[in-house]
Fold:
Amino acid sequence: MTWTLVFTRRARKDARKIREAGLRAKVEGLLEILRENPFQNPPPYEKLIGDLLGAYSRRINIQHRLVYQVYDEARTVKVLRMWTHYEWARAASGIFQTMPAKIQPRLEPGKVYRTRDLRTWGANLARLARRLIEEGELRPLAHGLFYHPKRSRFGPVPPEDAEIVRGFLGNDDFVLTGSPYWNAVGLGAQAVFPVVLVYNRERTGEFRLGARRYQLRRVRFPDSPDREWYAVDLLEHHRMAGVSPSRLEAGLRAALREHRLDPETLRSRAREYATRKTQTLVDRAIDTSRTLAPGLGA
Structure:
């Protein structure tokens, strides 16, 4: 199985210099070696130290080196530079001359970072963020919000919705809801809409973070949402879900008769989080489900 090669912006810019210097064939040969086995020896490679601890270097010619990192789990090789002077590669300082070792972040794949989260690694946070974006270590989600992508055989993987919201709010005090969660309750809702609902205690509004839209609402919600709460939440948002209350009530009765929902928990969630109209519907569905035998009624 071959390895996937990805290139930083600087490496892509170096490719033009490689062609102009007549070194294209040599570099392509090295890249083919990396696709087959980044640890192949011969030809020899060097393990770098200092600012580029964990990276590797292969000789292009007497003056320049190809510098790369290896991600074993994703079987991915990231090419950092292809026009690095020998002295720089040896000292591991050429690629990040303006970024000393103390501010070389160890970023967690799939994690979202705010600009202020980078202060551990330096004082000039804006410049640090720009450099990490150029190197492909960070990708922007919104102003001052970034993520360090996971690597897969198909390319970078964006973070989960919960991680994006955690980074945006700066805490874990929220609940995700909306069509995927409502549909999973099994009351007949099947709608899919491109907005993730987020209940939290701080912000209200709609925000685009990366390729997704998030509608934040400052409302009450349980610490540990259960199926009964999501059922009540769906009833409260039946218009958004595109399902009539009568259809949801029928689905609710079926779920109660089949013991997929607990009636007392459902009633309690409705009392605490729903309008009087929804409470009445829930009470009626519970009472009816107890009087109808399985297979009877709508």
Q: What stands out?
A: Residues 6 and 78 are 5 Å apart (CA to CA).
